[in-house]
Amino acid sequence: MTTKPIAPMIIRGEVITDHLIEVGGRGGDLAFLTPDAHRYVDRMPLGHPARLADLYKLSFDDILDYAEALGRQLDLASNRHLQEACELSYLTAPTTPSLVKASYMGLSRMLERGAIVEAVESTVGIQHLEGWVPQRLRDGTELEVRCFGARTLHIVAGNAPGLSLLTILRNMVLRSDAIIKAPSNDPFTALAIARTMIDMAPEHPLTRHLSVAYWKGGDTAFEQRLYQPQNIEKIVAWGGFASLKHVTQYVQPGLELISLDPKRSASIIGRETFASEAGMREAAIRLASDIGALNQKGCVCARVIYAQSGTDAQGIEQLNTFGRYVYEALGQLPDSLSTAPKRYDPGLKAHVDALRLDDEWYRVIGGKDGEGAIIVSQIAEPVSFSTLLDDRTANLVPIDSLDDVMDAVDAYTQTVGVYPESLKNELKNVLPLHGAQRIVSLGYAAAMKWAGPQDAIEPLRRMGKWICNQIASPETTPAPWLRPAVPSAVQAANEPSIQEA
Predict the structure, then answer these.
(1) Alpha carbons 373 and 286: distance in angstroms, whole number
(2) Are 226 and 45 in contact (CB under 8 A)?
(3) Farthest CA pair distance, the chain
(4) Whole-structure pTM over 0.85, yes or no?
(5) How far apart are CA 227 and CA 221, in angstroms?
(6) Could you tell me the residue range of the domain that residue 298 belongs to?
(7) Which InterPro entries match (predicted)?
(8) Taking a C-beta distance cutoff of 8 angstroms, is the pair 282, 443 a contact?
(9) Same domain assignment for residues 71 and 177
(10) Hey, how many other C-beta atoms are within 10 angstroms of the C-beta on 460?
């Protein structure tokens, strides 16, 4: 009889393997055992927020030292927890083994000291984490501002293992307390990192303020006990529309939702691209990278591409040629970035195969073996199933003018890859007005920079609690209880005139 793997529960430094129940990873390729979260729901919350105090005995340099040490431990070649998690994730992850392994091998780079300093300084500002930052206002008031940590629940996405480590890292630098709900398509990564932290420094405050558990999403009996303001102050939720809509029912005074909701991304290819063979080849490999990265499982990946080839016969023929170049480039990407999909979506494949019968309106390049496909619209319209594009399947749409793109950009548009670079000057002040949240050089869509905003917000700033200390005295600032010798404009406007009196 095959023994099922165990995904333990971690509660602030304690590894729990009791009261196991069987659950299934997403996709049905793996069943595993994990503690029944219902039995531990009352132990998961930190309790009183004053229990964060031990984190404030740490300096930011102490946090950086810990992160660096953890980075050295997160070496796939020597870390047994990561090795086990990586092997199990081959079955649960939406991507193929080579992509999963590449992600695990890159975890330690996320904890490089300089990278952490850069990201924190450019968002929160280290000085706001280390103490009170003063400023003097016009009326003489002294204002001090500091960013404090919070008791936070993280509902993490499972399409990339690095998201679990990013969540843990954000929690550390903010001096917060985290409960991570492990996703069904990546139930092992956060656990492996947490167990490494316990092995490395079991009594360290940063280790003791991390909990990781798996429970089935939508379990209202469980959630109604945990998702309360006396337990947590913020929920950071990644996920699809249905899961995020479900979480909103728990939002109330004292409990804030930070939503990193599902997005779609696109690309814009300027007319200069089609002026030369070299330009088309260059754009093709860049676009292939944006389509194929993570096998198109990320919000950042290109799905519909608007190409300024023109909509006349010559322009369409150029776009068909460009489509072949993109398809060829997809097959040449390194297997650490992209591979043939793990499981080509049968519904999507049915749509793609149906288009093969309609050469007048669409040209399908590839896809017969489930390796991904490029669909070239022969008219200036995307396919009707554009929201389903996945598994390295993208749609090239011809346009005459950049104005034709704007109606396709909306609040669901996350990343827009642009080529050539000079085209950005026409677009970067216009696309955001239509809803685009990130503009990137074509080919770099998956190279997310955590030093910048995400989904048009700054998550690290939102995850903290921003507290102000206001200092004033009658000697420096007009006192509300003292009548000024000369009424202010506001007071004069509000006081009755002699006639009114």
Answers:
(1) 16
(2) yes
(3) 96
(4) yes
(5) 10
(6) 264-441
(7) CoA_reduct_LuxC
(8) no
(9) yes
(10) 22
